[in-house]
Design brief:
Blueprint (H helix, E strand, L loop, with lengths): L7 E9 L2 H12 L2 E6 L2 E5 L9 E5 L3 E8 L3 H13 L4 E7 L7 E6 L5 E6 L18 E9 L2 H12 L2 E7 L5 E7 L7 E5 L4 E8 L3 H13 L4 E7 L6 E6 L5 E5 L13 E4 L3 H4 L10 H6 L15
Parallel strand pairs: 1-4, 5-8, 9-12, 10-17, 13-16
Antiparallel strand pairs: 1-5, 2-3, 3-4, 6-7, 7-8, 9-13, 10-11, 11-12, 14-15, 15-16
Length: about 300
């Protein structure tokens, strides 16, 4: 089994001009809890996760501020920093004490496309709770997906520098790659990278307690007047359920559950033909994937590439 220095996904941080509208949606409808506010920056936790927060929202031009990952301890974090430095990865800042809610010790770098990645350890965790049966709120942040104009190069950066592993890939009938699912632990994917016209956020996904809670959550969001752009269904890659919506900032966000846990010693990645309907949706309940549906998640060009966020 691969011994990785990155242990898990922590949170995703986004900026958008309609901060108040986005914050209201995530707290009043999506099911996250605001735990800290610093002016025009809000920190949102999931009741089922011990992470201090799983989403950070900030008022600014629309962009991905950063995606944060954890390491097991300070020793692994410093080893990772040494590795990335030796590989000429560009640092935003060197390892230091962090001042954000939950504190910790960490550093930030730019990935190959210019997105900011944070790695941290010794974070003060919050008191989480078990999500109740039929409670339609997220347990945790499941995964984040990026659009990239350089799909294979973007994915290879995570393989080469962070020791992520490609779990499965989606391909077109001619064999050309459309999406790579990458893992940093036994969960099928913590990130994925999709082929797009530009670099941007494809979607953020939130894990629900189970099928019942996932369906009730999707119904709750529909009743709030938010449009479902694809779903409900069940993917082949990852074997997880999906229901995709557009937030007020026009970011695609997903409720999911039952994302596959792999036996890494025996798992072999598959190349799944997207033209096969069972690849798109095992159940056959979602609309067939089309160019129109795919376009919904192309999103706006990320304005934050190779620009460090102010917080």
């Amino acid at each position: 089994m691969t011994q990785r220095l990155v242990s898990h996904l922590r949170y995703a941080a986004l900026a958008m001009p309609n901060f108040d509208e986005e914050l209201e949606f995530f707290t009043q409808h999506w099911g996250l809890t605001e735990t800290h506010r610093d002016g025009d920056t809000a920190y949102l936790a999931a009741e089922g996760s011990p992470e201090p927060y799983i989403v950070r929202l900030r008022r600014d031009d629309k962009r991905i501020d950063l995606v944060s990952f954890g390491t097991k301890d300070r020793e692994d974090l410093l080893k990772l920093a040494d590795k990335l430095r030796a590989e000429d990865v560009q640092f935003v800042h060197e390892p230091r004490e962090l001042t954000q809610p939950g504190g910790g010790f960490g550093f930030r770098v730019f990935d190959g496309d210019g997105r900011v990645l944070e790695f941290s350890t010794e974070v003060t965790l919050r008191e989480s709770r078990k999500i109740r049966e039929r409670e339609p709120i997220p347990v945790k942040l499941s995964h984040t997906v990026f659009n990239s104009a350089n799909l294979n190069e973007s994915a290879q950066w995570y393989v080469d520098h962070l020791d992520f592993t490609i779990s499965d890939s989606l391909v077109l009938p001619d064999g050309s790659e459309l999406m790579h699912f990458l893992r940093c632990n036994s969960t099928h994917h913590s990130i994925a990278i999709a082929k797009g016209p530009h670099h941007s956020l494809h979607h953020m996904s939130f894990e629900m307690r189970g099928i019942e809670e996932w369906m009730r959550g999707a119904g709750k969001i529909l009743r709030a007047g938010t449009r479902m752009i694809w779903g409900p269904g069940r993917h082949n890659a990852g074997d997880n359920t999906f229901a995709y919506f557009l937030s007020p900032a026009k970011n695609t966000i997903e409720y999911t559950t039952e994302l596959q846990i792999l036996d890494e010693d025996t798992w072999h990645p598959s190349r799944l033909d997207i033209s096969q309907l069972s690849t798109q949706d095992q159940w056959g309940t979602a609309s067939e994937m089309s160019e129109l549906i795919a376009r919904e998640s192309f999103n706006d060009i990320d304005k934050g590439l190779f620009v460090a966020p102010p917080v």
